[in-house]
Amino acid sequence: MNPNLNQLHPYPFEKLTRLNQGITPPASLPLISLSIGEPKHPAPQFVLDALTRELAGAAVYPTTRGLPQLRSAIASWANNRFNLASAPLDPEANILPVTGTREALFAIVQALVDRTASPLVVCPNPFYQIYEGAALLAGAEPHYLACRDELDGQPDYDAVPGEIWDRCQVLFLCSPGNPNGAVASLAQLQKLIHLADAHDFVIAADECYSEIYPPAGTPPVGLLEACASLGRNDYNRCLAFHSLSKRSNLPGLRSGFVAGDAGLLSQFLRYRTYQGCAMPVHHQHASIAAWGDETHVQQNRAAYQAKFDAVVPILQEVLDVKAPQAGFYLWPRTPGSDEAFAQDLLQHCGVAVLPGRYLSRDIAGDNPGAGRVRMAMVAPLEECVEAAKRIRDFLRSQ
């Protein structure tokens, strides 16, 4: 067996299951789960129609590069969304469809890391656990950068020593952030691009929450947009990862893409050809339909905003919490231990949440996720409001 398997931490939901063993929610209250970030809004019917129309594609081996029509649809969407007119993505060179960002974020590290060079994979803390697992199984050491309120939920990149950047081979960004919803600024992304040039590492930007933001707000800036603003038409050292899971409520379709540096994508395609992870043809046709429509995305955005508008004022009566800049999570501080708080909410309120410490690592005795919980606003509006009222009433009774 690969000895690095022994370094993998239990997944957050494994920890949550162990934490809640023996706890019985109130029989009189239906369970409301806010613990898992699985979209619950209906999948767009026109996408499902496209999927079923093309079921004959199940009899065909798909190519790893995907259909030309899919790459063109993705390039058209990304060029428009991220203002890339000055450096438009080439569907033949700058786009590679993937079977969801989770798979691709893991695989890219296996393809990029040179394990002979004492490599680091740098990521935010808290973080999506795939970043860490990908690093460990590629033979790299994860290096964690704490996300603090003092910097609007972003890591303090200026405080990172030069020797860390010298060993860095992959820098993971997550903007909008999971779990804190923080959005990186254009200036920050530009600074990181210059750091990547100076220290020769690759930036892997996980932007799967980029389309969930306040309808009246400004769309989050993307890594490729920052490249274009610097006149970097080659997107050198930069890769952006996107998905239909959150944008279009299609987590089961397993459809996304990675875009950017053509040289890196050429080698990643080579890796993926051996990995055997091509997207089924009928999924590709459904994806073409999804990337070509914005109306359902606007409706999705409005539905999440309605939840934040209703839920946040209720919770603010008893908790330190605010709506995120983007994404669909709340990240409130807890009155005491986050684990004990999660247990109390399940036992007394019938509401499941995820302790923040399960999304973070202790570094020198400090866990930046401790004392918070993640609440995913994915349930229907009525359930989210009901959960907030239960939490408020429970805390008032203490």
From TrEMBL:
Cofactor(s) recorded in Swiss-Prot or TrEMBL: pyridoxal 5'-phosphate
Residue ranges the record marks as coiled coil: none
InterPro entries with a match to the protein in the record: Aminotransferase_I/II_large, DapC_beta/gammaproteobac, LL-DAP_aminotransferase, PyrdxlP-dep_Trfase, PyrdxlP-dep_Trfase_major, PyrdxlP-dep_Trfase_small
Keyword match Chaperone: no
Keywords for this protein: Aminotransferase, Transferase
Disulfide bond recorded as keyword: no
Superkingdom: Bacteria
Enzyme Commission designation: 2.6.1.17
Short name of one Pfam family: Aminotran_1_2
CDD domains, sorted: AAT_like
Domain Aminotransferase class I/classII large: 31-391
GO molecular function: pyridoxal phosphate binding; succinyldiaminopimelate transaminase activity
GO-annotated biological processes: lysine biosynthetic process via diaminopimelate
Protein name: Succinyldiaminopimelate transaminase
Organism: Hydrocarboniclastica marina
